[in-house]
């Protein structure tokens, strides 16, 4: 199985964590979203990541990929058994992907990390201020009423936990931390979820991608255990490193 997408994407991270929970072997082609060649455009018409290739079958969109994994492969269940809990888990995954994605990725991470590092220009500081002052507090207040005081949402760790916690990785990269005095349940929940073993390997690879320069990033990934392949979905690179995980 192959996953196309950047390690620091919360949507890619969600899929990879679910693959780890399922104990499945996979490879990662660390492509940047919205770019790629014509073949990538065919696999992902919106040029978004992740893309999953499982044999001769391919899918895009992290929620659809995770649903496919849970329905196709045995092992750790990603969703709870009961219909009410399953519906709530799907809603919390959607809330994470939509609302937390908007505030933590577009309102914070993109402005503070992507703009200066990729485009060489400052982000929208007014949007960062509004995000920190209004939008993030509202989202955390909602989550404070949804997450448990101990453990995970539905017993063992599952898709909803992974989806929510994943966005807090990107928030941390943008120097945001949850105020434990104001939102104690969220702070505990995020800390314990990100400490789960499924995230350990993934966070190590993310640190490599974030710490390497643009010129050295590909070699850093190769040095971390990648192998080369002649197949590429990227642009302006004759070969692309593939992480075997």
Task: Please provide a written account of the structure.
- It is a single chain.
- With 245 residues, this protein is of the alpha+beta class.
- The chain has 2 domains: 2-77 and 207-244, Glutaredoxin (3-Layer(aba) Sandwich); 83-197, Up-down Bundle (Glutathione S-transferase Yfyf (Class Pi), Chain A, domain 2).
- 55% of the residues lie in helices and 9% in strands.
- It contains 9 helices and 6 strands, in the order βαβαββαααααααββ.
- The longest helix has 37 residues, at 83-119.
- The protein is globular and about 45 Å long.
Task: Record keyword descriptors for this entry.
245 residues, globular, disordered C terminus, Glutathione S-transferase Yfyf (Class Pi), Chain A, domain 2, alpha+beta, single chain, Glutaredoxin, 55% helix, 6-stranded mixed sheet
What is the distance, rounded to the nearest whole angstrom, between the alpha carbons of the first and last residues? 10 Å
How many DSSP E strands?
6
- Domain count, please report it: 2
Low-confidence stretches: 213-245
In sequence order, what are the helices and strands, one letter per element?
A: EHEHEEHHHHHHHEE
Radius of gyration: 18 Å
Q: What share of residues are in beta strands?
A: 5-15%
Coarse morphology? globular
* CATH first level of the largest domain: Mainly Alpha
Secondary structure: helix percent: 55-70%
């Amino acid at each position: 199985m192959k996953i196309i997408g950047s390690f620091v994407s919360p949507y890619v991270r969600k899929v990879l964590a679910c693959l780890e929970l399922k104990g499945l072997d996979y490879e990662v082609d660390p492509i940047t979203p919205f770019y790629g060649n014509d073949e990538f455009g065919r696999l992902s018409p919106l040029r978004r990541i992740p893309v999953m290739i499982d044999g001769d079958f391919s899918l895009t969109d992290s929620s659809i990929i995770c649903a496919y994994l849970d329905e196709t492969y045995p092992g750790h269940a990603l969703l709870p058994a009961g219909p009410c809990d399953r519906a709530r888990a799907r809603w919390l995954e959607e809330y994470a992907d939509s609302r937390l994605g908007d505030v933590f990725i577009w309102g914070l991470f993109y402005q503070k990390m992507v703009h200066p590092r990729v485009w060489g220009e400052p982000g929208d500081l007014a949007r960062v201020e509004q995000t920190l002052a209004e939008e993030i507090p509202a989202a955390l207040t909602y989550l404070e009423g949804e997450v448990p005081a101990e453990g995970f949402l539905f017993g063992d760790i599952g898709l909803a936990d992974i989806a929510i916690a994943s966005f807090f990785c990107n928030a941390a990269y943008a120097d945001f931390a949850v105020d434990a005095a104001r939102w104690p349940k969220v702070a505990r929940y995020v800390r314990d979820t990100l400490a789960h073993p499924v995230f350990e390997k993934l966070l190590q690879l993310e640190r490599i991608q974030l710490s390497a320069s643009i010129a050295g990033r590909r070699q850093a990934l190769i040095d971390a255990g990648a192998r080369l392949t002649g197949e590429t979905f990227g642009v302006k690179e004759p070969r692309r490193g593939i992480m075997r995980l």
